[in-house]
Amino acid sequence: MTRQVPLFINGEFVQSASNDKRDVLNPATQAVLAEVPFATPDEVDVAVASAKDAFQTWRDVPVAERARLMMRYQALLKAYHDELGEILAHDTGKTFEDAKGDVWRGIEVVEQAANIPSNMMGETVENVANGIDTYTYIQPLGVCVGITPFNFPAMIPLWMFPLAIAAGNTFVLKPSEQVPLTPVRLVELFIEAGAPKGVLNMVHGGPDQVNQLLEHPDVRAASFVGSSHVGEHIYRTGTAAGKRVQCMMGAKNHMVIMPDADPNAVLNALVGSSVGAGGQRCMGISVAMFVGDSSQLIDALAERLATAQPGVWDDASASYGPLISPQARERVLGLISKGTEEGATCLLDGSDCTVDGYPDGNWVGPTLFKDVTPEMSIYKEEIFGPVLCCMQVETLEEAIAQINSLEVGNGVSLFTASGGAARKFQHEILVGQVGINIPIPVPLPFFSFTGWRGSFRGDLHAYGKQAVRFYTETKTITAKWSFQEPAATGGGQPNMSINLR
């Protein structure tokens, strides 16, 4: 009998009453791993109601106690790190090492959530006027929602609910229906860490369930990571309903190579950053922009990239796994075909890739184009596959101008030996996350994930201090007290002890 993925509502895993169910497939074999139900409207309402009820008591739990919950949770995530990696590898098709990296980056955010007390401190000014003091409190919002994508089913949920809950909110998670098994295990460990019932809830579904959450009167804020098309809809729908919304969306990330860059470092960085995770990551490099004579590296790049081949999760020699679905594979193959039709030179074509023993896997081999121009589909669209486009420009100024002309601005990288070139680039580029001799500049979680322009909708970014501000409100108190000596009563001494436990 096929396993049905449960919902998690009010502290219990429950089987959905929905008749709308989808198969969860192993991307390497198409074997059915489980069946995921699309929650009924009543089930979504009950999940939100559970979170709303839990908020009434959770918001008053001391911030140090909330931090201790996160300490226990990160300890459990570390203890079950490899188990989570294996579940995630089957869920997504990622190699084991890549899957473990997904888990670890999530653990780092939970560690930051354990530091929540210092991020919940307000500000104080004594005697702003005659005997008047002003101070601020940082207080939670209420019920928050997270809508997460298929490509990082551990890391991105852990970007969201631990920080929101540590800040005193309660949460409803709607993970991708394509990869629900990893989030189920994350929830199990959160409960094992001691989370009270109702603080975290999880429902599954698609657009109908998402829209219900976004329009629900008891939801205060929503976080989303995914495609630009969906993100724009979520931002419009959520803000129209009066919610605070943050959407991390699409990208077209460039790596600019100066003639003085270290060749071996460039080649290694381009291979890993372009085909890692099968190219299915919003911070992956999909365009290599060669400045001047650095274009001499393109032939060597083709040789190096050809050595990176896909395989199944436990194949230690595999560089990456299959794409998430047959539909994703067909879309990538269509763009590869368009690239050739529109005049790009295909140096390496992964369209006919196969993996021995796995004829039904969603395989695409490493693919490399040169002579790519801004008008081509493979440049304008986010391919989300193991496809790297090479462009050539004469100057750093041309590279900066081209990148700044795009609508998106998630990540970018520059490889150079020149501090002056690096300074110019990082100052003038209109992209939120910049790497200097680093291909994928994803910040550690005490900073924030800061995509710009069309890669982001909202005012406050994911994780770090900005996420704490996203999940909280600031209350300002202005107070004046007049002092008078109390009349003598002859009573006993007052009890001044305070229980800080």
UniProtKB/TrEMBL annotation:
E.C. numbers: 1.2.1.27
UniProt domain Aldehyde dehydrogenase: residue ranges: 13-477
GO function terms (MF aspect): methylmalonate-semialdehyde dehydrogenase (acylating, NAD) activity
GO biological process: L-valine catabolic process; thymine catabolic process
UniProt KW Oxidoreductase keyword: yes
Stored InterPro entries: Ald_DH/histidinol_DH, Ald_DH_C, Ald_DH_CS_CYS, Ald_DH_N, Aldehyde_DH_dom, MeMal-semiAld_DH
EC supergroup of this enzyme: oxidoreductase
Keywords, ordered alphabetically: NAD, Oxidoreductase
PANTHER family linked to this entry: MALONATE-SEMIALDEHYDE DEHYDROGENASE, METHYLMALONATE-SEMIALDEHYDE DEHYDROGENASE [ACYLATING], MITOCHONDRIAL
Family affiliation: Belongs to the aldehyde dehydrogenase family.
Name of the protein in its database record: methylmalonate-semialdehyde dehydrogenase (CoA acylating)
Species for this entry: Chromatocurvus halotolerans
